[in-house]
Amino acid sequence: MSVTYVDAIRDAQEKLLRDDPRVFLYGQDISKFGGAFKATKGLAEAFPGRVLDSPISEDAMIGMAVGAAIEGMRPIVEMQFADFSSIAFNQIVNQAATHFYRTGVPVPLTVRLPSGGTPGSGPFHSQSMEALYAHYPGLVVVTPATVSDAYHMLIESVELDDPVVYCEHKFLYRWLKAPRINGDNLPIGRARITRPGKHATVVTYSAMVHEAVRAAERLKEEGSWEIEVVDLRSVKPLDIDTVLASVARTGRLLALGEAFPWGGVTAEVVARVCADGFHLLDAPPKRLNSRDTPVPYHPKLWAAHRPTPESICIALRELLNF
What we know:
By secondary structure, the protein is α/β, with parallel strands linked by helices. The protein folds into two domains: 3-178, Rossmann fold, CATH 3.40.50; 192-320, Rossmann fold (3-Layer(aba) Sandwich), CATH 3.40.50.920. Helices cover 39% and strands 17% of the residues. The chain has 13 helices and 14 strands. A seven-stranded mixed β-sheet has the order 3-2-4-5-7-6-12, with helices on both faces. The protein has a five-stranded mixed β-sheet with strand order 9-11-10-13-14, sandwiched between helices. The longest helix is centred in the C-terminal third of the chain and has 16 residues, at 208-223. The protein is globular and about 60 Å long.
């Protein structure tokens, strides 16, 4: 029996509730209903009084959780969609992120953000917010791309004393499956070489890891190109050492992300490689993101809006032929 990405998130929360009495879950319709994506299904019955429905106020949700974390609890807050976390922006970046630096008291809060696009979701239910939160000191921002990482990184996030923004990709919830959750749990802050290669490096994260691997397989069949794919796993902290080591092997860099292009994770990756590893490059680095427009509703427009294996191949061919 396989384990899906959303199963792994639910199982991690079950383990955390079972092992640590300080953990509780908070969010809209997460108790009896099991949450918008059923990531908490059955947990309210198994852990009475510790899976709590919140008011429809993201600001109040995070405010309560920050207070609980200050008092020694370890709350996990589920946002129905990452987009709605902007309503709690003040609480996350001005309260949770800075509290330890102001007072010496940690805020061990984990905010689960169902992130990224799915066909038909449109501009209010498809955004990728990771770069926005990574901008602020004091926050850890993780972006698991595999079933096992979804499990292990959520557990590690809750165990950290820092506030964590846990970006789980909605497209992966039931599409991504694994035979089991394995023990290959690298720590937060360490990237993984998902696919080794020697001709070009793709640095990416979350659902785009799988699109990059598909593109790499096509280019191997097309021209025996060996494309290395680096899964960042977390964007704050950013494992630039693994990125630079990969670029040293390949000499070429494509930074790939589903988020909007302006000032995002891909821009940071390119800037850091140019600053610290310019001498390693045999071609100008490239970026590929979704288009700089609100996310469209229509599935065909959405497919044209975000990077796909086809558009990744085009970008890589330009890089390889430079």
